[in-house]
């Protein structure tokens, strides 16, 4: 049975998702987007009320990219539950009427289950792959937050299969990453806010992460981000800081929020009906990345006292405060469109 007093196993989380779709068929859908390396399903929950439209704005939330960061799936499932309970129990459908919500609480299911035997496992479970032709051994796993198809294999990544930050043999080599890239790309014009949840550090990270450069709309992202962490702090007094990823943390290429944001400037030469030539400058996504304006990475509780092994009695407070932050972001993003 699903609850937020304890950390839950994958089977419980997946069962809970399927149960919601059965109980609230007009509001909740579960997409099976593929299978992990070890054959576990990659499930995405969709929550939607109000009128159904193909072009309805949407919000993406994911958790559990890194296996050991247990507070992430716990917090993301808490938020999903809160959205559904507000809509059913309190008839508050504001957030689900305005947006379709796509939620994948456990992006790396193989890694998550493997932490039952190796609590601090971080990566996926693909491989094993040889180091120096097997001379230096064999290792399993790719860092799924270095594997996205944007600035892949750049700064803060490793080509050593035994490294914790191994970027994989090629971009999106991991089925867990590929499935979600494809799922998000199919809906990239709908998705207005992309949030990925990690732990720990209590920081809100803005793109770019691949290098110490700010996006050209850094101030927009910062304004929405600062308001969100202020709202978060108001719930239990938990302090977060916000900033450009590479500036306040470290450079790490191939991360999911960079991929979600990914765009480039392109210059078009257009010859019009009157044979006049005009130049147009347009912001377009990189081939293969999504071009979503508001993309962030949360590093949840705590600041290092318990780190990845955060006590379960912090799940509910973390869920409450993070839900407040997500709500604040959703409302601000709504005003933008
Ligand atoms: O290193 C990471 O992937 C994240 N930190 S963690 O301790 N959860 O592993 C930070 C990711 C920041 N995002 C990018 N650099 N793109
Ligand atoms: Zn992480």
From TrEMBL:
Gene Ontology biological process terms from the UniProt entry: proteolysis
Domain of life: Eukaryota
GO MF annotations, alphabetized: metallocarboxypeptidase activity; zinc ion binding
Cofactor(s) this protein requires: Zn(2+)
Active-site feature positions: 299
Peptidase M14 domain: residues covered: 6-333
Gene Ontology, cellular component aspect: extracellular space
Alphabetically ordered keywords of this record: Carboxypeptidase, Disulfide bond, Hydrolase, Metal-binding, Metalloprotease, Protease, Signal, Zinc
Keyword Zinc-finger: no
Family membership noted in the UniProt record: Belongs to the peptidase M14 family.
UniProt protein name: Carboxypeptidase A2
Span covered, complete protein: 127 to 463 of 488
